[in-house]
Amino acid sequence: MDKYQELKKPLDKKALKKHPSKPFLTVINPMYVVERLNDVFGLGKWTAKYEVVVQDKEPVVKCILTVPDDGIHVEQFGGNNNIDLGDAYKGAATDALTKCASYLGVGMDIYKGLHDDGAEGLEWLPETKLYEIIKRIEAGEKITLATVKQHFKVNKKQAAKIEEALK
User: What is the pTM of this model?
Assistant: First the structure.
């Protein structure tokens, strides 16, 4: 199996947990990301360097993930709003690393929303379709939020927009 196929293999279910402030999303325990990078590239064969981009109560950190033997160089940003500033910086760093790894295929099934709450196998409601549904509601068509949820996964913001149109 080539490295890309190894990277994008689904992670162990134990790696997944609900997002603490967005319970409709699933997040990945970063240690499983580190484990996958070690398993595929080898211990000590990849590096992650971090740079604080925004130094604030809600820090933003840039991660530069490199795998010299494979010519890989990925840069991504992560943030965190934990009230404990030390945890916020650590969270921003692991968020950035996880995002870098996602560009290599790690956690692809999670980023596709295949483990989020909602009907399994349904795709997320695209914004273009959301606006079409709202226009149809405003034109008097009998559409309910429950009906939309039978066909799509709907996040909280989308649900609020649909509920507002139904008033």
Answer: 0.67
Question: Dihedral (C-alpha) 61, 67, 73, 75: value to the nearest 10 degrees?
Answer: -10
- Report the b/e string of 1-29 with b at 16+ CB within 10 A: eeeeeebbeebeeebbeeeeeeebbbbbb
Domains and CATH numbers, the chain: 3-111 (3.30.390.80), 127-166 (no CATH)
Higher pLDDT, 149 or 71: 71
The rounded distance, in Å, linking the Cα atoms of 25 and 116 is 5
pLDDT, one tens digit per residue, over 79-104 is 988 889 999 999 999 999 999 999 99
